[in-house]
Amino acid sequence: MSQKISIRFYKDRKVRAVWSEEQNKWFFSVLDIIGAINEQDDYQKNRNYWKYLKAKLRKEQSEVVSATTQLKLMAADGKRYLSDAIDQVGVELLAKSIHNSKAMEFLDWFTFSDNSIDGQSRKKAYTFWESNVIADEEIGTVKALQKIHAYIFGGLYDFAGQIRTKTIWKDGTLFCRAEYLKHSLEQIEQMPETTFDEIVDKYVEMNIAHPFMEGNGRSTRIWLDLIFKKNLKQCVDWSKIDKKAYLKAMHASTTDAKHIKALLKGALTDRIDDREIFMKGIDYSYYYEQAE
Q1: Is 60 exceeded by the pLDDT of residue 59?
Q2: Measured between alpha carbons, how far is 115 from 121 in angstroms, rounded to an integer?
Q3: pLDDT of amino acid 251
Q4: How many alpha carbons lie under 13 Å from residue 74 in its C-beta half-sphere?
Q5: Tens digit of pLDDT for each residue in 149-183?
Q6: Nearest-5° angle of CA 27, CA 30, CA 35?
Q7: 3-state secondary structure (DSSP) of residue 177
Q8: Beta bridge partners of 74
Q9: SS3 breakdown of the chain: % helix, strand, coil, rounded to 5?
Q10: Would you put residue 40 in left (φ > 0), alpha (ψ -120 to 50) or beta?
Q11: Alpha-carbon distance 66 to 58, whole Å?
């Protein structure tokens, strides 16, 4: 059975996490935290730093060392290796033990990231895997997209699941005007979705419509994957799609969808029943929405 995994992104650096069923909480990679704080990508330098710091903290009888456990984390080569990991309390202790401004900046981000609307909705999105909230016959409909949005943003936005009634802009892009939105969504819903090109065209049009006041991208990417799974028996491994490349391709898709089609086609996988693929997809989906 696959593990529950998570990736947090701090200044474009990954902080891997794994869920402990036994202790019922997340544990985070110590080496990733050190690399994020020190802005260091060299694995060996991070390992040496942790070796030195751990020895120092052990002499001081710090709680950081006693809070550290070893769990198997996925490495860049796709294999799992035992690695030092700490829970949320341990992360706070570790950051405070480093004694510099970068560590405090990381701690501020780490504390805020879980308590923000994004952090809370991401946790809800993780559970969508087991929710069965969307009936098979609803996949590809506006109703399904509304249910997804309501599921992950319910209790966080008072408009969760509701089609917007105001016209919105984002980064200079004007989305479908509110007075035309209902008709536009009716047309999008009727678009075919039997081939890869048809599905992506439907996804692009839904993005242009942008039916919600906020949370469109995160909801619509889940919606897209459900359509792929139903009709092509495939889904997107979003971890294979670079953030900048995705945002650029989506911006261009309003006039030419070839770039987003190329990115999505190159990231398709038949691992549609793999929970880790889904959870990584959620993590990257939320990463795409993070401000630069």
Answers
A1: yes
A2: 10
A3: 93
A4: 16
A5: 999 999 999 999 999 999 998 877 789 999 999 99
A6: 130
A7: coil
A8: 80
A9: 55, 15, 30
A10: beta
A11: 9
Tokens of 109: 């981000």
Enumerate the β-bridge partners of residue 71.
Answer: 83
CA torsion 269→85→153→279, rounded to 10°?
Answer: 10
Q: The tokens 């692009």 sit on which residue?
A: 204
Residue 169, φ and ψ in degrees, nearest 5: -125, 155
Query: CA distances (Å), 95 to each of 40, 137, 163, in order?
Result: 15, 49, 42
pLDDT exceeds 50 at position 104: yes
Domain 125-289 has CATH 2.60.40.10: no
Contact 83, 71 (CB under 8 A): yes
Residues paired with 19 in a beta bridge: 26
The answer for residues whose C-beta is within 8 angstroms of residue 171's C-beta and 6 or more apart is: 251
Closest by CA to 134, choosing from 148, 121, 123, 124, is 148
Please tell me the total number of residues recorded for the chain in this structure: 292
Burial of 13 (0-12, 13-18, 19+ CB in 10 A): middle
Judged on CB neighbours under 10 Å (0-12, 13-18, 19+), 105 is middle
Rg (CA), the chain: 21
Name the residue ranges covered by the structural domains of the chain. 5-115, 125-289
Find the helix or strand (DSSP H, E) in which 223 lies.
Answer: helix 216-232
The 3-state DSSP class for residue 189 equals helix
Distance between CA atoms of 292 and 63, rounded to whole angstroms? 35
- By C-alpha distance, which of 177, 117, 124 is closest to 151? 124
